[in-house]
């Protein structure tokens, strides 16, 4: 997992090899309800959108989440781009970040799929953002994506990726 800072924008880049088919990976990640399985319970994450069936460009997905422990937040994401079994992009429309642009890429490789997440984000309150990033946000995002990797490994090992 790599983090970058550039001109007030922060970026996260992470990769994970998944020993499953591209079809299995795509089906799991393009089912919005599965995001709850990949989110630590401490964030009290709940999808509030009506029943979601797959993803499509222009789709709006709503959540409640506690990114910061004492501040519950409503989060609205739009799926802005989808190329079946290759990638999709979600962007925050309302929520705790000033900007959130998350790319999910899937590439078939020998023995499975290489999944790549690229997240670009900007924090609110420019004067406090560098300190908040160093003291809290970077650590929290590292924790969330490490949790995702561990849960995915466990689900795949138990053949429970549905």
Q: What structural class do the secondary elements suggest?
A: alpha+beta
Q: What is the average per-residue confidence, as pLDDT, rounded to a whole number?
A: 94
What overall form do the CA principal axes indicate? Answer: globular
Per CATH, the superfamily is START domain
CATH topology: Alpha-D-Glucose-1,6-Bisphosphate, Chain A, domain 4
Report the β-strand fraction as a percent range: 35-45%
Number of helices in the DSSP assignment: 2
How many strands appear in the DSSP assignment?
Answer: 8
In total, the number of domains comes to: 1
Instruction: List the uncertain runs.
Output: none
Radius of gyration of CA atoms, rounded to a whole number: 16 Å
Main β-sheet, in a few words? 8 strands, antiparallel
Approximate helicity band: 10-25%
Give the CATH level 1 class: Alpha Beta
Give the spatial strand order of the biggest sheet: 1-2-8-7-6-5-4-3
């Amino acid at each position: 997992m790599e983090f970058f800072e550039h001109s007030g924008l922060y970026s996260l880049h992470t990769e994970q090899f998944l020993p499953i088919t591209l079809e299995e990976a795509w089906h799991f990640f393009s089912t919005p309800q599965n995001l709850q399985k990949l989110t630590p319970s401490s964030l009290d994450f709940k999808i509030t959108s009506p029943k979601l069936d797959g993803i499509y460009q222009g789709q709006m997905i709503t959540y409640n989440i506690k990114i910061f422990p004492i501040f519950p937040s409503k989060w609205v994401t739009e799926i802005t781009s989808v190329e079946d079994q290759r990638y999709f992009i979600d962007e925050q429309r309302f929520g705790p970040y000033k900007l959130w642009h998350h790319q999910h890429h899937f590439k078939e490789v020998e023995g499975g799929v290489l999944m790549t997440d690229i997240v670009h984000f900007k924090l609110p309150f420019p004067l406090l953002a560098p300190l908040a990033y160093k003291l809290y946000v970077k650590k929290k995002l590292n924790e969330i994506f490490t949790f995702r990797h561990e849960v995915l490994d466990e689900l795949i090992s138990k053949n429970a990726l549905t």
